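>> received
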Amino acid sequence: MILPIVAYGDPVLRKVGIEIDANYPGLEELISNMKETMYNASGVGLAAPQIGKAIRLFVIDASPFAEDEDLSDKDRAVLKDFNKVFINAEIVNEEGDEWAFNEGCLSIPDILEDVFRQPKITIEYQDEDFNKHTEVLDGLAARVFQHEYDHIEGILFTDKLSTLKKRIIKKKLENISKGKIKADYRMRFPNLKKKK
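>> returned
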């Protein structure tokens, strides 16, 4: 089932997600719905807060990036198979010089900005069967993970922008929170007053 994606301004996007266990109600269906919602919106990642649930869960399928001819063969090979469910994820270590990359977010449509992130991370997480994993990610795979991880920490990519950039996009963000935007997918807006 395709779920509405929560728009910028909704308080759930600012909550730090709580850990879940295998007894979380309807988890398998939730993961399936999140993947369907992500694909419907042409996204490469979707975190539970973006569908209104403040839990430590996100899904990633970065395979569309594998078709980018500007990337190295190594990066394309990694991204082609980077399709995973992350539960109770943690970043254990970040290293390297920060680099900029143009990011967007399904909760913040039509805004793309350069965000600086470190290129190499060590992560721990559980998969959908609650098996524990420790992995090292770098390049674009690390960046996609960091973006989704921020969501379960209550952080948005716009928080990482300079004061000037934030001022420039302030009106656009206000319009998104008021539903004054057209998206190619279902959205839920926080500041739409119900008419009596």
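>> The mean pLDDT is 95.
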